[in-house]
Amino acid sequence: xxxxxxxxxxxxxxxxxxxxxxxxxxxxxxxxxxxxxxxxxxxxxxxxxxxxxxxxxxxxxxxxxxxxxxxxxxxxxxxxxxxxxxxxxxxxxxxxxxxxxxxxxxxxxxxxxxxxxxxxxxxxxxxxxxxxxxxxxxxxxxxxxxxxxxxxxxxxxxxxxxxxxxxxxxxxxxxxxxxxxxxxxxxxxxxxxxxxxxxxxxxxxxxxxxxxxxxxxxxxxxxxxxxxxxxxxxxxxxxxxxxxxxxxxxxxxxxxxxxxxxxxxxxxxxxxxxxxxxxxxxxxxxxxxxxxxxxxxxxxxxxxxxxxxxxxxxxxxxxxxxxxxxxxxxxxxxxxxxxxxxxxxxxxxxxxxxxxxxxxxx
Length: 362
What we know:
By secondary structure, the chain is mainly alpha-helical. The chain has a single domain (9-361), classed as ABC transporter involved in vitamin B12 uptake, BtuC. Helix content is 73%, strand content 4%. Helix 1 (3-34) packs across helix 13 and helix 2 (42-67) packs antiparallel against helix 11 (248-274). The radius of gyration is 22 Å and the shape is globular.
């Protein structure tokens, strides 16, 4: 085969490794929609979006950490600690009616975010300054966060939340009421009962709106800001980044702080959605958040990846899980299928590196 033919094949393979998550997501949507189980409906799509918010929020911070050739194993329990801390403060501030629900919710949310950020700050400082491997450091702080969450909550769900908390976690930006006399309502829940209540659909619940804003911010930071370019440089070649004058240690501290803060935000939203703080809220979501990042094309070796890729990876996992449940497939198969997709993503990443390496060698 001639040189032009080889170059054409390499371009095709590179294109395949870059677009396969998007193509795979489309195939999944078409497949589950064609099964006739009512998958492609407005209500189901909104339920999927709500379900992915904590995984995606943890994945946002994890994306930047992994692009910089790190890892954060503490985000699952940091989310649980943030959920418990915010719920306790909101409950205590509103218990005696001395505080209104709005300031109590704001202070509770800030407390959850602040505690999470402090854990991330400790992770980043020790990884950067003392050169403790990120895997070990974040594994250790995950146990610390786990113990603190259980101590604060006593092993129980922290209830006693004002109605405004549940309203924020479950109300939406828009409501669609079908049928006669219905319509589209913005910023408030329509006062409907009976049959009309069953015909009402939520569109963009507030946790989804908050997550979308966070996604937009992270995309802007990675694409447009110098900080984002430095993140890729650190992940690509740490020593070269140091020699180029990039403050690697400072960036590392900021990255782990951001990773924990996004997990903290997921915890606050979990408190709002379920009207209670749960220490175990984030434990089952750690591995899916890492899987979503890998499926989305972020290289575990650092230097490559995008936030949009993480969004697609999160959607792939959610669509797979939801579709298999609606098809009455045993839930244990979800783990098998997601694991296969993660392995496929790693193979695609290896293929991309192999093709690029051969292209450089010719």
